[in-house]
Amino acid sequence: MATGLRSVTERAGDGSGRPVFDGDNGEELMHVQPGVSIVLGNRSPESPGTLYISTKQVVWLSDADRAKGYAVDFVSVSLHAVSRDPEAYPSPCIYSQIETGAEDDDSDGSDSEGDDSLNLSKISEMRLVPSDPNQLETLFGIFCECAELNPDPIEEEEGEHNWVFSADQLEDEAPEDDDSEWAVPRNSIGVNGNHDLANSVVQLQINDQRFEDAEEMEQDDKNGHN
Amino acid sequence: MLFFSYFKDLVGREVTVELKNDLAIRGTLHSVDQYLNIKLENTRVVDQDKYPHMLSVRNCFIRGSVVRYVQLPSDGVDVELLHDATRREARGS
Fold first, then answer.
1. Which of A126, A169, A211, B2 is deepest in the core (most CB within 10 A)?
2. Cβ-nearest to B61 among A83, A125, A143
3. Co-location of A106 and A24 in the same domain
């Protein structure tokens, strides 16, 4: 799946003039809305056209030019809304923002000289203007349904999340043996490759005479030298 | 599911949603789903310079994956409750 808006030049060969959908992978047509004009970025509206909404994408096909069409996957639609404010746009429409994956939103391909100079992948705003404004709520609802069908694919992390929220959490997660005097961590520090640092630490303790049991040391009488 | 449950309790409150593209939208929280997709009502754009065309739209659906922050009413946040809930969720997962 591509991010952003893309051009659609192919139509179904059955003469229906519909877009090609990937039925084998479960893509279904949800809604067809004729009489819709499309506005990309700051460009002039393009019409007449028909809107096809599938479970995976939104496709607009020109009625006049059978090689012209645009499509965007729902995973790339960041938000959509019903726009009725005439100051925002003269005609009531579905306003949507498209994730382009680009940082720079200044160049939205608003060159209206023709498709050759239009960079669809940079289009970040799209308006769909139905000839019948009463259809807006229906269209909005279908956009919502389809957006919900297209959550971001989740990459499963292996193992537990090792998030630390507070020092308390660290205390709780490292229960000590009551026997050992030394706080050797249960999870060995840096067992890494061939270096067994945990054992190295233990050995260090044994070798240091200061930590040997008192009985094992040569004891002088408390009162004085021998 | 923690924040899904949490946001469900905030339905009807005014929130400001800041998107990853820096757009900030204020509105009444209408609903939220398990993916944290957010529907707002009576939305208006907080900073009109970036997206002047958007201005005010009646209803708005925001994809959960593009949300950076959700700014909440301060009396809608019980910090202790959230703190405990997130710690429980972290341990349980």
1. A126
2. A143
3. yes
